[in-house]
Amino acid sequence: MSKVGLIPFTIQTVLKDTKIIPPGIELVGAPTAWEQGYFGHGNVIAVLDTGCDSSHFELQNQIIDGYNFTTDDGGDPKNIKDYNGHGTHVCGTICAEENDRGVVGVAPKAKLLVLKVLSGQGYGETKWVTEGIRYATKWRGPNGERVRVISMSLGGREDDQDLYKAVQEAINQEILIVCAAGNEGDGRYETDEFAYPGAYPEVVQVGSVNLQKEISDFSNTNRAIDLVAPGEEILSTYLNNEFAVLSGTSMATPHVSGAVALIIEQCEKEFDRPLTEAEIYAQLIKRTHSLNYSRRYQGNGMLNLTLDFGSEIKTFQTAITE
């Protein structure tokens, strides 16, 4: 039986309260999208993790549904309680509510489908993750909502074929899958480090940079890295209505997941039609800039929502309608 788990991460500080736009959210340019009226409205992001503190004042209005695939709480399918803190932190980076308190997420009007696939100890069976992906793919909300993005800050060493098949099924349903690259990096781009499902070529594999835009020494390197985002000293929601500063590619991933919700909202308004998974990916990669590292470190570069692609959007629209 294959196992997956939290990609090792560091808890640096726990705070009782704060009032700030987290530096990582600023660094990827989310406030620029907000100024243009894009907050991720109407987009559901499935977060496969350790659950979520659904009573946190930043997240209680953001969760549209949830399901527990683990044996925590006797396997109660509706109990998504987070006994770890990791899932709550990831959820906050994606879409912590804008409410003049605490922090704010990248896409504060998006909604979360919380799928608990890791126990409080941070480990789970690969089949729980596989079932979670399939659940997200088939899920429909009370008003017919569908999952647009799956966010996974987890990984395992084994290439599980049923997991891979579930990934492919989700992508065939036009769902973009965003995964952490992993924290086994040795600081050398010449060596490959892989964590699954992040290493599958069909998913968006996210590496980490610090707040000075330098590649994190721990960030996995390989030829399938798609982009990088802030993953060190990331401030977000934590258990018991608190906040924490954590580091890891787990923290880089939700910056991208939230950004995708903003991109979908912007581009589907522009195109006046739904985008395919491939089109969403293309628009995401257009919003990156090179940090002048090897592509094995940075992929296409760092997420940057401040980039103005108005002309490219129109060119792209012309190309796909001809």
UniProtKB/TrEMBL annotation:
InterPro entries the record matches: Peptidase_S8/S53_dom (IPR000209), Peptidase_S8/S53_dom_sf (IPR036852), Peptidase_S8/S53_subtilisin (IPR051048), Peptidase_S8_Asp-AS (IPR023827), Peptidase_S8_His-AS (IPR022398), Peptidase_S8_Ser-AS (IPR023828), Peptidase_S8_subtilisin-rel (IPR015500), Subtilisin_Carlsberg-like (IPR034202)
Lineage top rank: taxon: Bacteria
Catalytic residue positions: D49 (charge relay system), H86 (charge relay system), S250 (charge relay system)
Keyword Oxidoreductase part of the UniProt annotation: no
Keyword field contains Nuclease: no
The Peptidase S8/S53 domain, residue ranges: 40-301
Keywords on record: Hydrolase, Protease, Serine protease
Pfam families: Peptidase_S8
Similarity remark: Belongs to the peptidase S8 family.
Protein name listed in UniProt: S8 family peptidase
Species assigned in the record: Metabacillus endolithicus
